[in-house]
Design goal:
With about 325 residues, the protein is mainly β. The chain has two helices and 18 strands. The N and C termini lie far apart (about 40 Å).
């Protein structure tokens, strides 16, 4: 399952920004244990769904854990090859984690962060366990917590600011997540490796305010590549390493109303393109080497559901996950 570049990382990095879009949609209908308030509706916030790529639902499909105050994330928390569920509550920095094969992780219910921080997840050391990252846009403050609770070497360092969008991804192929920033006003990209050095495309300008930035390994070399999606037209662009383009650079696929994501849905080690339309729950997928995946065009989810992608059954293929963050 794991090579130099963990596939769970490729699944996660294209999704973080999508989850953050919904950070301000808060409610208090149920708490994180799943207890339902008297005025909650039949389909409460905190409802999880998962659909295995090769068919069937996972063991925790339809489970209720969380509420509308939480931001959902996913990644391999215990290094067993399965994507696990993670929650972050901005107003008090509460973190939750639920292992796919059962039970909570060691940092479940720990508080770290606040409403001013954006949550991300990545792999910050060689133990292949998902670690937590926060970024404060007001002053570019970064924080990181390894699975054992200790801080990483760049914890509390300041880099960035209010105009930048943060990511974590392995940009140099050492299997360790690095920090990435994107400034939409002028398309500036920045990257900082584990040791604080810059990558080969640091400070390059590519993009602008109309583009959605994503990161994923589109050519299977275990290094995160930059991807742009222009939602109003469905235009896609990709930059491999510093300047080369991928095979689908310049293609049009999608359009208004879709959320764009990246993940390896067919197990070939390359990130594929995925679209989700919240208005009706339509999923679409386009493989990097051409053609659609098996669930292209299916409707599952809909208004109030946030889409995620993660390999929940350790077969090397990204599966679909939804999390309900509203009570309607």
């Amino acid at each position: 399952m794991f090579k130099r570049f963990p596939r769970h990382l490729a699944i996660t990095i294209g999704l973080i920004s999508s989850a953050l879009v919904y950070a301000d949609n808060v409610s208090t209908a149920i708490d994180r244990t799943g207890r339902q308030a008297a005025n909650a509706l039949l389909t409460p916030a905190g409802n999880w769904g998962c659909w295995i790529t090769d068919g069937g639902k996972c063991s925790w499909d339809a489970a209720v854990w969380g509420d509308a105050n939480y931001i959902p994330l996913t990644g391999d928390v215990n290094a067993d090859g399965n994507a696990d569920r993670v929650l972050y509550r901005p107003f008090d920095g509460d973190w939750g984690c639920w292992i796919t094969d059962g039970g909570k992780c060691s940092w479940d219910e720990t508080k770290w962060g606040s409403a001013s921080y954006q949550p991300l997840v990545g792999y910050l050391n060689s133990d292949r366990k998902l670690d937590r990252v926060v970024y404060r846009a007001a002053d570019g403050d970064w924080g990181c917590r390894i699975t054992d609770g200790n801080a990483c070497e760049w914890d509390a360092m300041k880099w960035g600011g209010i105009e930048f969008r943060p990511f974590v991804a392995d940009v140099d192929g050492d299997s360790i997540s690095d920090r990435v920033l994107y400034r939409a006003t002028d398309g500036t990209w920045g990257c900082r490796l584990r040791d604080g050095a810059s990558c080969n495309w640091d400070s390059q300008k590519w993009g602008g305010v109309e583009y959605i930035p994503l990161l994923g390994d589109v050519n299977g070399d275990h290094i995160a590549d930059r991807v742009l999606y222009w939602g109003s037209t469905g235009w896609w662009g990709c930059k491999v390493n510093s300047s080369a383009i991928c095979s689908w650079d310049g293609q049009y696929w999608g359009g208004p109303g879709y959320m764009a994501m990246l993940a390896d849905v067919n197990g070939d080690g390359k990130s594929d393109r995925v679209l989700y339309r919240p208005s009706d729950g339509e999923w679409s997928c386009m493989l990097t080497d051409g053609g659609a995946c098996s669930w292209n065009g299916q409707k599952w989810g809909g208004p109030g559901y946030l889409p995620l992608l993660g390999d929940v059954n350790h077969d090397g293929k990204a599966d679909r996950i939804v999390y309900k963050n509203t009570n309607n």
